[in-house]
Design brief:
This protein is α/β, with parallel strands linked by helices. The protein has a single domain, classed as Rossmann fold (3-Layer(aba) Sandwich). The protein contains 8 helices and 5 strands, in the order βαβααβααβααβα. The protein has a 5-stranded parallel beta sheet, sandwiched between helices. The radius of gyration is 17 Å and the shape is globular.
């Protein structure tokens, strides 16, 4: 897969920088970006955090659609694209123009993986998100599926219907369906690594080691002194 010609926010001349984390459910990416956020805040930097599917504009519609199990692959994709576009225009772009480091728990690569695995055309999904510039840094946390599954079940009693891909009819057993669905997502992420320059982190390592690697890589790409709150 050739590298994309799309530009990052830095290449487009934005003063801020956008850092995203990607990975399957249970990969530990949310923990890592939370730790990164706290570290940057403790250094007195201008930081903003945004997560997937959190726009107030469509959150209730998404929840209702999931509960009633009425979302088709296309409507699922369009709802998430609407959520992303709303946050992109109202939060991400204004803060990047204001010189913030913006941290995103999932970016458009999540749609490229999930929507295509659910049966949407890869070209169609990419065109849907072509308004969004690339992150300046994207970490892809990769862990064995058994590890991801165990992490989720340690935190709550059971898997969620859609995170297990039960809507795809892969298996009647929810844990088996999870492994099949998330396994397809892992394969798709691996295919995007070279194209989009995703930085793969071994998510089976201790949390502290992963965070150390993330901070080191971040500091090589972003001059943190430029993002002090008192500037």
């Amino acid at each position: 897969m050739k590298k994309t010609k799309e530009k990052t926010f830095s290449q487009l001349g934005y003063p801020g920088r956008l850092v995203a984390v990607e990975g399957v459910d249970g990969s530990g990416k949310s923990t890592q970006i939370y730790l990164l956020k706290r570290w940057l805040e403790m250094k007195g930097l201008k930081v903003f955090f945004s997560e997937w599917n959190s726009s107030g504009l469509v959150k209730s519609a998404t929840r209702r659609g999931k509960q009633q199990k009425i979302l088709t692959p296309t409507t699922f994709s369009l709802i998430h694209a609407t959520d992303f576009a709303d946050r992109y225009e109202r939060q991400l772009v204004p803060l990047l123009k204001a010189g913030y480091i913006v941290l995103c728990d999932r970016y458009k690569f999540t749609a490229f993986a999930r929507d295509t695995v659910r049966g949407c055309s890869p070209d169609w999904v990419r065109k849907l998100y072509n308004f969004a510039a690339l992150p300046d840094l994207t970490f892809f946390f990769r862990a064995p599926l058994a590890v991801s599954l165990n992490r989720i079940l340690q935190g709550r009693p059971q898997l969620k219907y859609h995170e297990a891909g039960m809507d795809l009819g892969l298996s009647n057993n929810i844990e088996e369906s999870f492994k099949l669905f998330q396994g397809q997502l892992l394969k798709t992420y691996a295919e995007m690594k070279t194209e989009f320059g995703l930085i793969q982190i071994n998510a089976n390592q201790p949390i502290e080691k992963q965070q150390e690697l993330v901070r080191e890589r971040l500091a090589k790409v972003i001059d943190l002194k430029e993002y002090q709150l008192n500037q």
